[in-house]
Write a structure and sequence with these properties.
Blueprint (H helix, E strand, L loop, with lengths): L4 H4 L19 H25 L6 H11 L6 H13 L6 H10 L7 H14 L3 H10 L9 H11 L3 H16 L7 H13 L3 H13 L7 H14 L2 H13 L6 H13 L3 H13 L6 H13 L3 H13 L6 H13 L3 H13 L6 H14 L2 H13 L6 H13 L3 H13 L6 H13 L3 H13 L6 H10 L6 H14 L4
């Protein structure tokens, strides 16, 4: 037994044997750590050198020198750094050199994000669409597999311009057939948005159908809503209603913004009744119409002279707590004026002021037009003074309304006075108003005064209508005295008026 004991004892280990005899002479994590440390040092050197060197240094040379000094390979982040700096310093001529080294010298895989950023730089900063497309095709040369992300980046920038849009079809064919990139829903969304922007709604709807029939994608609500909004913006009521039917067939329900756009199109097309029906449908779908929807429908029913329904709508707004704004009040006051309920219109203005909803120039112009049409023009001048007291400046329509009213009542002298005010404020009267006023003045023997008005008009490069010249030259039965004739001839001579 004693002879066996030494054999069972373990052999004495030599802890001082050479590293060369170890199975792992250098641990892998230590080599990786050292490489990362060196690359970090090289990157810090590159950043420092790029900021301290003279203006517009050669960043590619700095990159190579920095990493060579620390005996390590450049990193993708280092190349991204110099591309970013070249862009900020407008050193775009160095970008091809950087790409050439990346393609021919470096061996590491380049992340796709690098090319996505560079594609945007080529188009947004340089307007070099061809170079952006060429870079996209070259992505595989840089040891990177292009995906739908880089394709979408290219499509997004191409769809911003007419030139880019003309190249989209070629890019799509090559990317799908030669580069094996499959279009995704996001790609269709980019293309459909672009088609809608250039008003190619038919093509947009074709792509919508292609998503489902050829690619098996089910277009989501956002895509349908985008097309619908753009069609509404165009304003063709037949197109809108046609796509609305398709919208509903796939089971989608309009949102509040869609309903608002639809109501606007219907009202502008003179379909106030249909606009009212959409308001009811909107409430039936569980949505509360806002003040914009109510105002548009109110305008629609007033346009078809359904004043009873307009009163119901206005009361409904107040009952539901939808606070009218100045546009709502203007529409409602216009409805009152169309019914010759002018006093109620003025009371509504007082009601607006009590609710801190300040009437604007449209409010007063609406009342002014009704006063000049149904009542004495003198009250119209009172409205003009009221506007001044309330701090509401009249616009060109204010003066046109009042001048037309004065001319219609035969008060030509006062109309001329308002013309003077218009000229002071650089407002231009309508040619038809000028013709009517000058003809009326000539018929009353006020030829000299008519020529004074005409002279002021021509001095402001406003062309009178043909009727004015016919009245003054051919159709007037008045005898020009010598002074008046000389004044007219001088007017023609000075302003080279063709008569």
């Amino acid at each position: 037994m004693e002879t066996l004991i030494p054999k069972l004892l373990p052999k004495k280990t030599n802890f001082f044997r050479s590293r060369k005899t170890r199975k792992f002479p250098l641990l892998p994590f230590k080599a990786k750590w050292q490489q990362n440390f060196n690359q970090q040092q090289a990157m810090e050197t590159l950043i420092t050198e790029s900021t301290t060197k003279t203006q517009n240094p050669n960043l590619l040379s700095l990159l190579v020198d920095s990493f060579t000094t620390y005996k390590c390979d450049p990193t993708p982040s280092a190349y991204s750094f110099i591309i970013r700096n070249l862009t900020q310093n407008s050193q775009f001529d160095q970008i091809p050199l950087v790409l050439n080294r990346l393609e021919k010298v470096e061996k590491f895989e380049i992340p796709e994000r690098f090319f996505i950023n560079l594609i945007k730089i080529y188009v947004d900063d340089l307007n070099q669409i061809e170079n952006a497309i060429d870079l996209f095709y070259r992505i595989p040369n840089f040891r990177c597999v292009p995906t739908v992300y880089s394709l979408n980046a290219l499509l997004s920038v191409l769809c911003k311009s007419k030139q880019g849009l003309s190249m989209v079809n070629q890019v799509l064919l090559r990317s799908t057939e030669l580069m094996s990139i499959r279009l995704e829903e996001s790609s269709f969304c980019i293309l459909i948005t672009a088609l809608c922007r250039i008003k190619k709604f038919g093509y947009a709807i074709e792509l919508l159908h292609m998503m489902l029939s050829e690619y098996g994608y089910e277009p989501d609500y956002e895509i349908y809503s985008k097309i619908f909004m753009e069609i509404c913006e165009r304003g063709d009521v037949d197109e809108v209603m046609g796509f609305l039917e398709e919208f509903r067939k796939v089971g989608f329900v309009l949102n509040g913004e869609n309903y608002s756009d639809l109501i606007r199109v219907l009202v502008k097309s003179g379909k106030g009744k249909e606009g009212l029906d959409m308001l009811y449908q909107m409430k039936s779908d569980g949505m509360k119409p806002d003040v914009v929807c109510y105002t548009r429908v109110l305008e629609g029913v007033i346009s078809i002279k359904d004043f009873e329904k307009s009163e119901e709508l206005f009361d409904e707004m107040l009952l539901l707590g939808v606070e009218p704004n100045v546009y709502t009040y203007n529409v409602y006051i216009n409805g009152l004026c169309k019914q010759n309920k002018i006093e109620e219109g003025f009371k509504m203005v007082e009601y607006m002021e009590e609710l801190d909803c300040k009437p604007d120039v449209v409010t007063y112009n609406t009342l002014l037009g009704a006063v000049c049409k149904y009542e004495e023009v003198k009250r119209g001048k009172e409205v003009l003074r009221m506007m001044g007291m309330k701090g509401v400046a009249g616009n060109v329509h204010t003066y046109r309304i009042l001048i037309d009213g004065l001319i219609a009542k035969g008060e030509l002298v006062e109309a001329c006075e308002l013309f003077e005010e218009m000229f002071v404020k650089d407002f231009v009267p309508r040619s038809s108003t000028l013709d009517t006023m000058i003809a009326g003045m000539c018929e009353r023997g006020l030829v000299g005064e008519a020529l004074q008005v005409l002279n002021k008009i021509v001095e402001r490069n406003v062309a009178p209508g043909e009727k004015t010249w016919k009245v003054l030259l051919f159709e007037s039965k008045l005898d020009f005295n010598d002074a008046t004739r000389m004044s007219f001839e001088q007017l023609v001579l000075n302003h080279q008026v063709g008569v």
